[in-house]
Design goal:
The structure is a single chain. 23% of the residues lie in helices and 24% in strands. It is an alpha+beta fold. It has one domain: Alpha-Beta Plaits (2-Layer Sandwich). Strands 2-3-1-4 form a 4-stranded antiparallel sheet, with helices on one face. The radius of gyration is 14 Å and the shape is globular.
Length: 88
């Protein structure tokens, strides 16, 4: 089962078609992962900097390492598992 990876881009890299975004896409091209907006219909510029990728567990460490080295990527981490709300 794939693991969701959250990718935080620099603002310039979040603009589709920009040179910074093309550099990110080129950097991850050989990882066999697709980057998709975490909040696809947002108009908020900060939320638009968050992407999500589905990564196979066996390639997670390599994918995270590669993503973190890409120019335009400010961070990459596995999405934490969901938890039920705690008691008050």
């Amino acid at each position: 089962m794939p693991i969701e990876v959250i990718v935080k881009l620099a603002p310039a890299a979040a603009v589709s078609g920009s040179p910074a975004r093309r550099a990110v896409d080129a950097c991850v091209a050989d990882l066999d992962v697709a980057l998709a907006p975490l909040h696809p219909s947002t108009t908020d510029r900060e939320l638009a900097t968050f992407l999500v990728a589905q990564v196979e567990p066996g390639t997670l460490d390599a994918a995270l390492s590669r993503l973190r080295r890409c120019a335009g990527v400010e961070g990459a981490y596995p999405k934490p598992p969901g938890e039920p709300p705690g008691r008050m």
